[in-house]
Specification:
By secondary structure, the protein is α+β, with helices and mostly antiparallel strands. The protein contains eleven helices and four strands, in the order H-H-E-H-H-E-H-H-E-H-E-H-H-H-H. The chain has two domains: 3-170, NADH Oxidase (3-Layer(aba) Sandwich); 172-238, no CATH class. The protein has a four-stranded antiparallel beta sheet, sandwiched between helices. The longest helix is centred in the middle third of the chain and has 24 residues, at 102-125.
């Protein structure tokens, strides 16, 4: 495979970083690479907050569930879905704008994710490591207050960036046959394929932890559908002016 594909397939989440700063010119190039991602109708519906203040980083680390690497990484970014800038631009151009539609929420969220993944790939191509921090949605209102986010802007996730001080294995993914369907959604083999993948993940966790972690993919999903539902997000997004029409 070519080097780009090999790079993409080698992604790992890094949670331990060296005490080494990312040079500013490289950091800005990563952001420019992010801006080159596809964007719906050229809206570019995102804003990235580079959290430099160490006290704010510590606060966000706690709000995100006590993830210390938020404070320890060379750089920490919060990727925000932003419909404020583009809506106001259209309004200044004479449009009778409509705010707060569900489609605007989808567009801004997708734009933000695509932009962030470009940053991630660019960072890894330069030997950097990263970890996405979805935990900022545990307390999104507090994070929004710290970052002084206006209406029509919401924090989607954070990203730790830095030089890796660990070398974890690449975590296995579901087999292609489970996620790639031909012509229509055919789930007749899904139960079998998931069972096989659970066995593979069970072996992976045992090997990674020296036999100290007895779990698999399906077991790891349980919190997502029980304790990590984040029901507060609906009211939070409404309060931000998103997804109400």
């Amino acid at each position: 495979m070519n080097p780009t594909i090999e790079l993409l397939k080698s992604h790992r989440s890094i949670r331990k970083f060296k005490d080494q700063k990312i040079p500013r010119d490289l950091f800005e190039e990563l952001i420019r690479a992010g801006q080159s991602a596809a964007t719906s109708n050229h809206v570019q519906a995102y804003t990235i907050i580079h959290v430099v203040n160490p006290d704010n980083r510590k606060k966000i680390a706690e709000l995100a569930g006590g993830q210390s690497y938020v404070a320890d990484a060379s750089d920490f970014l919060v990727f925000c879905a932003d419909m404020k800038r583009s809506t106001e631009a259209a309004e200044r151009a004479g449009a009778d704008v409509v705010r707060g539609t569900t489609e605007q929420l989808v567009v801004a969220s997708v734009d933000t994710a695509l932009m962030a993944q470009n940053v991630a790939i660019a960072a890894e191509s330069e030997g950097l490591g990263l970890c996405y921090i979805g935990g900022i949605r545990n307390n999104p209102a507090d994070v929004a207050d710290i970052l002084r986010l206006p209406e029509h802007v919401y924090p989607v996730f954070g990203m730790c960036l830095g030089y890796p001080d660990q070398n974890p294995e690449v975590k296995p993914r579901l087999p292609i046959s489970a996620i790639l369907k031909e012509d229509y959604y055919d789930d007749r083999r899904d139960e079998e394929l998931v069972a096989e993948f659970d066995d593979r993940m069970h072996r992976y966790y045992l090997e990674r932890t020296g036999g100290n972690k007895e779990t698999n993919w399906s077991e790891q999903l349980k919190p997502l559908f029980t304790t990590k539902l984040r029901p507060h997000m609906r009211d939070f997004l409404k309060g931000r002016g998103f997804g109400v029409k």
